Amino acid sequence: MTSFGDLLGPQPVLLTGDDEAESDLLNGAAPAEVAAAHPTASIAWAYLAEAALDAATAGDAPDTAGVVTAYAFARTGYHRGLDQLRRHGWKGFGPVPWSHEPNRGFLRCVGVLARAAEIIGEEDEHVRCLDLLNDSDPQAAAELGLA
Length: 147
Hints:
Layout: H1 19-26, H2 31-37, H3 42-56, H4 64-87, H5 104-119, H6 123-136, H7 138-143
Helix pairs in contact: 2-3, 3-4, 3-5, 4-5, 5-6
């Protein structure tokens, strides 16, 4: 039985992460430098996407260019995460637990992608990302303030 209670469903995917990239980020390295040195590390793209979206939405009205930049960073991290998930046996569905720290880079990218898509009016993408988060792990959406 999976930890998500589906007897017939796939086992949760537990990514291995990128220890060096994660360490660099935790030690204060610039996320852009980490993404350049470790372009497959979704966590670096998540840092970039979150910072860009926070900056773009800090004023009274969102800065569209900043939101699009956040969207692009998040989309890159999302695709890098999909590559990792597939290498770990994910078939496009099934649990990707938030509780497993190395999964969070991918899930955080999906969260920023959802928020940025909503801001620019891309409702289909917004809903698709929310569905992906909820299908991966309902706790992820809650942790990212999207529940």
